[in-house]
Amino acid sequence: MLHVQQVIIPFLAYMIPAFYLFYMALDIISRNPRKTEHRLVSLMIFSYFLLLVEEYLRHLLPLEYSPVLVNGWFGNVGVIIPALGFHFIAAITDLHKKMPRHLYPYIFYLPLVFILLNAATETTMFTSREFVQMGIWKVPEYNTAYYTTVTFGNIIIMVYMMILAFYLQKELNRERKRLYKTLLLTMGLMLVWTSVFGYIPFGSGLPPHPFIYAGIIWGFALRLAMNRHNFLTTFKSRYETLFNLNPLAILLVNRTGLIIDSNPGAKKMLYLEENHDTNISEFIHPGVMKKWEQAFESGLNDQLKIKGLETRFMINDEKKDVVIEGDYLLVDEHPHYILILRDVTGDMEKSRRISFLAYHDYLTGLSNRRYFYKRFEERVKEWKENHEQSLLALVLIDLDHFKHVNDQYGHTVGDQFLKHVAYLLKESMLDQGVAARLGGDEFVLFLENVSSMDAIKEYMSELYQTINKNPFVSGNIHIPVNMSIGVSICPSHGETCDELLRYADQSMYNIKKSSGNDFEIFPGKQDTT
């Protein structure tokens, strides 16, 4: 019959630390069950838990059960711990990268063969078979097998330390170096502990096998490493780090659009306060509000991702082009969106600028030759398909005496003069067609939906009136705008841009040779309807 102290004292000695190690093992594996390091550390700590549980149960059973429990349970778990330890050391250093794939990590588990041999032969390979009762404790005989076990364990710890010391010298990352130092110090303490409490027989003064309490040192050191060096982090903490360090703006919004959480990038971009109560719709530009609401509502209702949604924000009265990526998720069983915002204002401006320059003259802002040809061909195609009765007119313009302007006033004034002419031509067009600069001092107009030849002549007359009333003036410089103009008609003179330009050029050249500052419609068949 066991006395109360034979139950309570072993419980305090073994099960209280065992519960602590069990908690540690669960905590670590729950942080990231898919990570190798988490699995290995959790298994190592759980192994120490099993050692403590075995010792507690051994003290509840009669003395004759001690050899069986120590040999079949304690000894076998003691073989597993070094195998896990080597695997762990290789995983956290670069050792695993230097090992062949067909060896790593299997080579570390070769000692498990001893477990099979132990079970097959029913012999005691690394533990004592003799136990004596000393007070409440069932103490092993300190024989050769016992000291061999302790010595082997110390050698394993020293090999761990040698590997860590080697990689400590090669490691450049400051945080990893601190981690290695913490583990080295821990293993040094474990080595001292197992040496003192493994080699010195304390009799009934301490619980048997006191060296197994080194597992508590190991567990405590890992807790320290987790707190100080971000070691064995959880999924949550890793995602929090990504969330907070990501330079992009990240928002968590509920189904009404209320911003539930925001990272520093979002706070900086949107000027959010810490305790804000803001809806994302407050930033959406009115012009794209309907587009945003449709994407947001349909995404939530159908649990769809938002992919590359181009929208526009108003932030502190400033327009910002923003691309939104988003995904649907449930938070506390309620639908939410995690949104990533990219401010592409600069990129969009560059894109718009590139697109503008592809079809516009960089100096005057008018359409360029490329766009003029493109638009003319599109319009002629429409004109044919719709069987329109109206005329299309091409007006070719060449400035008179522009070389003299450049020579007398310089190219800066010459450029300003060209901009002034471009402005007058653009204003004269209104919605009647396209004004373009072909190059140098040569411009071209494309008049749409002209009812008759008289309408073309009337437009030309109004154009000259506008030009004559608006000479170029800059300071003391006063330059009248004179231009020679040739006009060709579609379909009378052709239906392609090249044809019409050729005929208009001939008429313009005729004016240029005579007095200049006038226009001529190319002679030939003219539809006056």
From TrEMBL:
<feature type="transmembrane region" description="Helical">
    <location>
        <begin position="104"/>
        <end position="126"/>
    </location>
</feature>
<dbReference type="Pfam" id="PF00990">
    <property type="entry name" value="GGDEF"/>
</dbReference>
<dbReference type="InterPro" id="IPR052163">
    <property type="entry name" value="DGC-Regulatory_Protein"/>
</dbReference>
<dbReference type="InterPro" id="IPR043128">
    <property type="entry name" value="Rev_trsase/Diguanyl_cyclase"/>
</dbReference>
<dbReference type="InterPro" id="IPR035965">
    <property type="entry name" value="PAS-like_dom_sf"/>
</dbReference>
<feature type="transmembrane region" description="Helical">
    <location>
        <begin position="38"/>
        <end position="53"/>
    </location>
</feature>
<dbReference type="InterPro" id="IPR000160">
    <property type="entry name" value="GGDEF_dom"/>
</dbReference>
<keyword id="KW-1133">Transmembrane helix</keyword>
<keyword id="KW-0812">Transmembrane</keyword>
<feature type="transmembrane region" description="Helical">
    <location>
        <begin position="73"/>
        <end position="92"/>
    </location>
</feature>
<protein>
    <submittedName>
        <fullName>Diguanylate cyclase (GGDEF)-like protein</fullName>
    </submittedName>
</protein>
<feature type="transmembrane region" description="Helical">
    <location>
        <begin position="208"/>
        <end position="226"/>
    </location>
</feature>
<keyword id="KW-0472">Membrane</keyword>
<dbReference type="InterPro" id="IPR000014">
    <property type="entry name" value="PAS"/>
</dbReference>
<dbReference type="InterPro" id="IPR029787">
    <property type="entry name" value="Nucleotide_cyclase"/>
</dbReference>
<feature type="transmembrane region" description="Helical">
    <location>
        <begin position="6"/>
        <end position="26"/>
    </location>
</feature>
<feature type="domain" description="GGDEF">
    <location>
        <begin position="390"/>
        <end position="524"/>
    </location>
</feature>
<feature type="transmembrane region" description="Helical">
    <location>
        <begin position="146"/>
        <end position="168"/>
    </location>
</feature>
<feature type="transmembrane region" description="Helical">
    <location>
        <begin position="180"/>
        <end position="202"/>
    </location>
</feature>
